[in-house]
Amino acid sequence: NAGVMQNPRHLVRRRGQEARLRCSPMKGHSHVYWYRQLPEEGLKFMVYLQKENIIDESGMPKERFSAEFPKEGPSILRIQQVVRGDSAAYFCASSLRLDRGYGYTFGSGTRLTVV
Amino acid sequence: QQPVQSPQAVILREGEDAVINCSSSKALYSVHWYRQKHGEAPVFLMILLKGGEQKGHEKISASFNEKKQQSSLYLTASQLSYSGTYFCGFHYGGSQGNLIFGKGTKLSVKP
Does the beta-carbon distance from A43 to B87 stay under 8 Å? Predict the structure, then answer.
């Protein structure tokens, strides 16, 4: 079992460019979550998706950020027109149903640096 | 609602014990505990479901007091490998399908 696969591990973008972060969940997991982590800080929830559906995007900034989890392929977190404040580690996690007592498996994260 | 997690940081000598606490102001469905080492992904430790229970994992165990909506993580006879940041994650159930994490407790175990 390959676990949760995130790529790229490191991403450098200039201000104004677009960043695309990919996440392939564990085999059999249909729930995907994205979190952002700033240095020395906790994990901030961004969005929760199931296949082809956004379940909860209450943690997503209203502008420039979007997420999808298509029927085929990985989940994508897209940040348009990046700014320096977007620099952070972005973690994806997948799970079976939390209400059945399952926990998260995290990917290794994407470290985004905006220059 | 973000869990209130304490302490923020702990420094231990090998073999010493530590307790990390998390509390909620509203009813919880389950509590999850994770450990993150510097530059790495968080790693799952254990889940405690409502109903009040205690679980163990080697020398790391946890409790969940449903009446008080509090959970504690116990690290006994700490080892160097226990160093890292520990996060509690709260699942409130119902329409909320994701975990809300506390700010973390940085644990440093010295030889």
Answer: yes
* B96 DSSP assignment: B
Cα–Cα distance, A33 to B25 (Å, whole number):
24
What pLDDT shows up at residue B67?
A: 87
Window B:41-70, CB contacts with A under 8 Å: 41-44, 47, 49
The DSSP bridge partners found for residue B47 are: B32
Per-residue pLDDT tens digits for A62-88: 999 999 999 999 999 999 999 999 999
Instruction: From A46, A43, A86, select the one nearest A66 (Cα to Cα).
Output: A46
Whole-number pLDDT of residue B83: 96
E strand segments, chain B: 4-6, 9-13, 18-23, 30-36, 43-49, 53-57, 60-65, 70-75, 84-91, 100-101, 105-110
**Are β-strands A53-56 and B9-13 bridged in parallel, bridged antiparallel, or unpaired?**
unpaired
B11 CB near a chain A CB, below 8 Å?
Answer: no
C-alpha Rg value of chain B to the nearest Å: 13
Q: Are the C-beta atoms of A101 and B53 separated by less than 8 Å?
A: no
**What per-residue string of b and e applies to A75-109 under the rule 16 or more CB within 10 Å gives b?**
bbbebeebeeebbbbbbbbbbeebeeebbbbbbbb
Q: Of A41, A56, A104, which has the smallest distance from its Cβ to B44's Cβ?
A: A104
- Determine the distance in angstroms separating the CA of B99 from the nearest CA of chain A, rounded to an integer: 8
Give the span between the Cα atoms of B35 and B87, in whole angstroms. Answer: 6
- The alpha carbon of residue A100 is apart from the nearest alpha carbon of chain B, in Å, by 10
